[in-house]
Amino acid sequence: MRNPLYAAYEARLAKSLSPQAIPRHVGVMLDGNRRWARERGADTAHGHQAGADNIANLLQWCDEVGVEVVTLWLLSTDNLNRPAQELEPLLGIIENAVADLAAARRWRLNPVGALDLLPQQTAERLKESADLTRDVAGMFVNVAVGYGGRREIADAVRSLLQEHAGKGTSLEELAEVIDVEHIAEHLYTRGQPDPDLVIRTSGEQRLGGFLLWQSAQSEFYFCEAYWPDFRRVDFLRALRAYGERNRRFGA
């Protein structure tokens, strides 16, 4: 049973949020699963599963306050180099977690990342989950698996060059007109608003390559809690901190 004082504090915190200060797009780095498991004497897979079990809660909280887009970083390109005995169970957990989100049909899922680097089964299951929610009108959820910010920018430039090569544009002609908007049109998140708020759990205070291009003017919030322990009150505190900031967008 929840502590009534804690529940009252959480309710007061939620009520204090201004609807005009809710971020449209929230990026979340779900960090700390392995350390959470280690501190409990459990294996790594247990920590990853505990983290996966908390994802739907986060999406519910985002829904409640009116967030339009959420990007979840579930697996980096660097993580693909982990030992097979850790990576294979993790991929299975991610596949099942995304499939469960799709089955709920509450949110529109969009896999982002270098899917060609993933095992074929993982890539196919992610695409199947996305297809299942293609007609869902709910919140848009980017599922970043096999994602790295540098890789995304390289892929965007490669896609841009291939597009113009198909049109017969010379390199000299392209160099004359290329700008940041041209590259942005080829990012994994093209057509979406850039993240207003990026949250990282586990106490780490670095981006690690998450949404490098898109987060140029984002606000950042670093939470001490490991991802499996991340609560609604932690999310509300992040929103409160975001609402209290004066966003100048580089001005």
TrEMBL record:
Catalyzes the condensation of isopentenyl diphosphate (IPP) with allylic pyrophosphates generating different type of terpenoids. Signal peptide: none annotated. GO terms for cellular component: plasma membrane. One of its GO terms (molecular function) is Z-farnesyl diphosphate synthase activity. Homodimer. The active site is at 31, 79 (proton acceptor). This is Isoprenyl transferase. GO terms for biological process: polyprenol biosynthetic process. Its cofactor is Mg(2+). Belongs to the UPP synthase family. Z-FPP synthase subfamily. Mg(2+) binds at residues 31, 219. Binds 2 magnesium ions per subunit. CDD domains: Cis_IPPS. Substrate binds at residues 32-36, 48, 76-78, 82, 200. InterPro entries: UPP_synth-like (IPR001441), UPP_synth-like_sf (IPR036424).
